[in-house]
Fold this sequence. Notes:
Blueprint (H helix, E strand, L loop, with lengths): L6 H102 L5 E9 L2 E8 L2 H13 L5 E11 L5 E10 L1 H17 L5
Antiparallel strand pairs: 1-2, 2-4, 3-4
Amino acid sequence: MIKINLLPFRIARKKENIRRQISIFFLLILFTSVLMFWYTQALDKQIRTVKEKTEQVNQQIAKYKEKADRVTQIKNDLKALDEKLKIVSDLKKQKEKHFILFKSMTDLVIPERMWLESFKTDATGLTIKGIAFDNPTIAEFMEKLEKSMLFSKVDLKTAKMKTFKDDVMLKSFELLCQTEKSQEEGKKEDLKKGKNEQPKK
């Protein structure tokens, strides 16, 4: 009977299996490395694309922000211009009003019995300060002011004796002359003050 020794064949087969497993292992490592490299490149490309888009968006934002700032500046300039034009218009109206007022005063003053010291205009109207010989002169001047149609109301704020040179005693007076507009504004101011002064509950 013939006997065959199979041990060398088994050892060779075992070695072949080991070589195959090692080869498969290294192939898997190589494939994984290639796959990771490809994924990293694809991810880097996506990151670069996102960065480029972000940069483009930021550039567009900066561009539109610059335009928005210019529009805001133009609006502010127009607002400032409107305010200046309004001031100029108000000053022109005040100038015309004062011119008419001063021109009219020469006809309203009682000749040789009184003279005016100062004028002051504000939201409440016109304040006139002057000197008169006596109370009837002041009363006559107030009556002429009311009849002049320049003012809707004339009030006497103060009237007191004042000593001048050589011990001359004259009447120093102060008048508040109101127009219809100034009266309305005065009423509004009084209402505002009344609301602000109401006690808190």
